[in-house]
Fold this protein.
Amino acid sequence: MTAGGHVTLVGAGPGAADLLTYRAWRAVARADVVVHDRLVPVEVLDDLGEHVEVVDVGKAPGRHKVPQDGINALLVRHARAGRRVVRLKGGDPFVFGRGGEEYAACVAAGVAVDVVPGVSSALAVPALAGVPVTHRGTTTAFHVVTAHTRAGEQELDDVAAGCVTQRAATLVILMGVSALPAIVTRLLDAGASPDTPVAIVERGSTPDQRVTRVGLDLAAKRADELGVRAPAVIVIGDVAAHGLLEGTSDRGDVGDPRG
Ligand code: SAH
């Protein structure tokens, strides 16, 4: 190994191997070490040369396999040894992926670091389910939140609740499955309409993708009945209405003066 190792934070997209960007594939192909999360396409790892070291630091929900400090230290250590390190992360590295912390750790250690943006599940998973996060005449903004805060509390901030109650923006929730009952209660208590459309998309872009559409008031009950599991993206707002793009929606843009 020569000097001049570096770290590239690479977004691996939502799950399907062909949703990695071309730049992501090229970075992986040049890597000496690949440090990856749980939610990355296995095909990417199958194609690696035999000399490439693969480290799984993946986290199952609620269980941290390798603590964040340990991941940061690992990246720095390999790069200092002159290796080309790819840190392969689900979706986009800077969307709830702690990529910012990894980037900062490299900078603090004097290690060269760059980013290959990824196709974030926040946008791609709704799209794959036919849910546009904005739609002319229906909604012109979206807000992406996690329901899972550092303190382990599961709640929505006021801005997020306002998106739904005022029909101001589409609300896209990541890591929200276990918090869904609390989210529904919060939104209804804040004055959201019980029939606000909700789309829950599990395992987007994989062969097991499942889309559940339901009104807000029944969302938690229905998710429980169906055994909805992470990973899932929850979309709340008029864009999630069934039939919106087929012109058969009974909500949203039909006859909407904003159109
Ligand atoms: N950086 C990632 C998000 C990491 S947080 C990104 O940009 O996509 C992990 C959360 O992302 C999951 O809990 C789930 O809410 C969402 N997610 C990731 N992949 C998904 C998939 N294939 N289908 C549904 N949700 C997914």
Remarks:
- The chain is about 30% helix and 20% strand.
- The pocket of S-adenosyl-L-homocysteine is lined by residues 14-15, 39, 90-92, 95-97, 120-122, 125, 174-175, 201-205, 230-233 (CB under 6 Å).
